[in-house]
Each structure stands twice: as structure tokens, then as C-alpha cells.
Amino acid sequence: MAAVCCSTLLVLMAWPAATAAAAVTPDSLLNICMDAKHHKTEPGPEGQLYGQCVLWKDNACCTANTSMEAHEDQSYLYNFNWDHCGAMPEKCKRHFIQDTCLYECSPNLGPWIDQVDSSWRKERIRDVPLCKEDCDQWWEDCQDAVTCKVNWHKGWNWTTGTNQCPKGAMCQKFKYMFPTAAALCEQIWSGSYRYTSYHRGSGHCIQMWFDPAQGNPNVAVAQYYARGNAPSTSPLSLLLSLLPLTLLAQL
Ligand SMILES: *[C@@H]1O[C@H](CO)[C@@H](O)[C@H](O)[C@H]1NC(C)=O
Ligand SMILES: *[C@@H]1O[C@H](CO)[C@@H](O)[C@H](O)[C@H]1NC(C)=O
């Protein structure tokens, strides 16, 4: 019993120091823009946001110019060609436009920002918990679109200045490339999104689409995850959160 007591105390004493050293407080993850290619340094109102990006006009990490470019084929943003295996149907493309708007404009992705060592950005997003409906609809509407790659972040032939299918990569319908909605949302941007079974409006998943008249639902979702209420808490942090109770019980 003594050994349990003292190692418990030791952990408790070391814990606040370790947390302070990391210097990530819950609030520093809220209302921020990632350090990437086109993001503003800080979020703020943008009266002129264009088209599908207009949802973020009250508080955005994108400029009006970026929001307009997000709707262009092969825009100056990334020179990315959606039509690399033939024209992408409009009903599918609108999901890629919305995905670009969320990525460029949302100030609520802080809990999922990760450092990267890349020539064109210092930060990226990883494992953003996407609402089930947003991912399912994306997959549904893109069944007949065609592509030659599962991971669109890597492996293209860029010699012409835009992405072309690399040699040997066959163009196939999305439904064969991505057998499930989860495969599409999780693999296409190499783990930027995580498929969840949470529903829109649950407060536990990020919505790519929302009704701005009701406010931005992702504000509360970021708060929920930043404050560590996430259900995917690791066993270690769960143990740590229970320790004070254990200690009290022993006194
Ligand atoms: C956005 O800005 C870039 C760089 O200044 C420019 O080349 C591009 O034409 C602009 N796009 C729009 C739609 O205004
Ligand atoms: C890349 O594309 C260029 C131009 O289309 C082509 O000549 C070259 O063989 C391609 N390389 C690979 C590795 O696919």
C-alpha cells in the first residue's frame, strides 16, 4: 500500500510541472488559424467571402481571394486538378470545394493542428472528427467520379505544374478506390479527417456544412475537444484524472 501511495504522490507532484512545460492550454487551441500556405495569421470577420465559403464570413482564417479561388479548377491555391481522370461531376466537386472552405476558413480546427516538416506549410490538421452525414454524403455524391490515387497528398507527377496521375496508376471510379465512406474521408488527405458515428448537431463532430443563421456549430465542438472531454481519452490521461480521487480515498 505504501508503494502505491508514494508513487501516486510523485506522479501528482510531477504532473502540473509537465503540463506547464507543454504550454498548451485549452484556450490556446481555440479561435486560431494554422500556419499554412494561405491562412491569415489570426481569424476575423471577412465580409466578402465567396460562394460555399460564405458560412465563415463572421470569423474566418481565409481571405475573400482565397474563398474565390477555392471554387476554381486548378486555382492558384495549390494548382490542384480535380479533373485528373476526366471531369469531376459537379455534385461531387461541391464537396471538395466545401472541404477546401473548411480547411482554409475555419478557426475551429485548433485541437487537431499538428506540426509538419514540409516546404509549403508548417502545420496541418490530423484526425479532425468529421460528422457522419458530411462524410457519407461526400462519398455518396462521388461514387461515379474517377481518380487514380487513394492519397491525394502524395505521389503525383507534378512535372507539368499540375498534378497528373503517375505512371501505372489506373483511373477508376471512387467506389472502387474508396470502398467505404470512412476510406474516402480518412485516406484522401492522409488522415486529415477521422470518420465518426457522431451526428450533425451532436456537438462532438466537425461539420463541413452548416446553416450560418444558427451560428457556427464547430465553435462548441472545438471547445469540447480542447478541454479534454473527448471520448477518445487515452488510458493514461484517464488514470491521471482519477488519481486525485484515489488519493482522497486513502486519506
Ligand atoms: C488572388 O490573388 C492572387 C495573388 O495575388 C492572384 O493571382 C489571383 O488572381 C487572385 N484571385 C482572385 C479571384 O482575385
Ligand atoms: C510525368 O509526366 C511527364 C509529362 O506528362 C511524363 O513525360 C513523365 O514520363 C511522367 N513521369 C512519371 C514518373 O510518371
TrEMBL record:
Alphabetical list of Pfam families matching this protein: Folate_rec (PF03024)
InterPro entries: Folate_rcpt, Folate_rcpt-like
MF terms (GO), sorted A to Z: signaling receptor activity
Gene Ontology annotations for the cellular component aspect, listed alphabetically: external side of plasma membrane
Domain of life: Eukaryota
Keywords, sorted A to Z: Disulfide bond, Signal
Signal peptide (from-to): 1-21
Residue stretches making up the Folate receptor-like domain: 32-207
PANTHER family referenced in this protein's UniProt entry, alphabetically: FOLATE RECEPTOR, FOLATE RECEPTOR 1-RELATED
Family membership: Belongs to the folate receptor family.
Name the UniProt record assigns to this protein: Folate receptor-like domain-containing protein
Primary gene name: LOC116992050
